[in-house]
Amino acid sequence: MSSFRTARTPRARLVGAAATVVLAALSLTACNDGTGVESEGRTTGTPSTANGTATAPPQDEPAAGTTQDSGTDASAPAANGPAGKDSGTKAPAASGGSGGSSGTGASRKPVTCEGSVTRTTAAPLTRPVNHMLLTVTNTGSRTCFLYGYPAVRFGEAQAVPPVIEDSQPQAVVTLEPGQSGYASVSLAAADGSGTNGHTVKSLTVHFQGRSGNGSVGTAAQPSLPAQGVYVDDSLKVTYWQQSMDDAVSW
């Protein structure tokens, strides 16, 4: 019995060693993914193309023909501000100088001479007799035009006296600030031929506009002598004149 056991021991060891060699060889050709059925020669990290089917690309790279959604359209530049607006640049504000210039121009534009921009005085004349001189002085800051003739009302008269047509000047009387224009009033007939003569103590002077139709602006009320002045139906006036001499020549 002792010799039999000794004879079988080396054979068992030989069989065990052979089995170990076979297992090692199989281990060298087997895949590490646990399937046990893989083609030989597979390179680690390369996608398999077995059966003609391509393996999907890694998830951190978009597949060909697709785009990743980053929330921004890559074809359009990033907006710098509201559409249609310049980025932070505004048009310059209108210059205050032009407004001031406009205001200056307006202050120099001529106006119509009337009571609010003039001072009117009435002074009886000794020559010609029964005449009165009206003087209108520009007290404003702008040039004014003294149109037509004075529409005068003595006392409670309802109508204005007629104008002496031949006294019309060739040009409209123009008064710079501080300058004066003139007109004379024939109060009564020198030969006493006038009718309805009476004494008046108040006078109102109305001013005409460019059209000559009616009065414009504020009327003037120059003072008369305390004893008043005598007028009759021959009452008439001249056109406004640029000089005193022209006014008293009628």
TrEMBL record:
Q: Which PROSITE patterns match?
A: PROKAR_LIPOPROTEIN (PS51257)
What are the DUF4232 domain coordinates in residue numbering? Answer: 113-241
Keywords attached to this entry:
Signal
Keyword Signal among UniProt keywords: yes
Q: Give one Pfam hit by family name.
A: DUF4232
InterPro entries linked to this entry:
DUF4232
Q: Which domain of life is it from?
A: Bacteria
| Bias (Polar residues) ranges | 42-56
Region forming the signal peptide: 1-32
Q: Where is this region: Disordered?
A: 32-119
Q: This protein is called what?
A: DUF4232 domain-containing protein
Task: Say which species the protein is native to.
Answer: Streptomyces lasalocidi
